[in-house]
Amino acid sequence: MSLPDDATHVSLVVYDLLGQPVKRLIDGPLNAGTHLIRWDGTNDRGTALSSGVYVYRLRAGGTAAVGRVVMVR
Known about the structure:
The protein is an all-beta fold. It has no helices and four strands. It has strands spanning 10-15, 21-28, 52-60, 63-71. It has a four-stranded antiparallel β-sheet with strand order 2-1-3-4, with no helix packed on it. A hairpin with a 5-residue loop joins strand 1 and strand 2. The model has no long low-confidence stretch (mean pLDDT 92).
């Protein structure tokens, strides 16, 4: 997904399957366009998470996207 021009604030959060947030990757302004964000498999405290399925939610301007990511250790 490419960020829209009206994306004044961008939020990208990773959740576990219980819906608990585990890592906030972005929380602030980003320019419009395409960006590459890498997640190192840790939570907000820096602890390595186990292998499994996680859900991410991207909010940018008035747009939101949700998807799954599989982490394999």
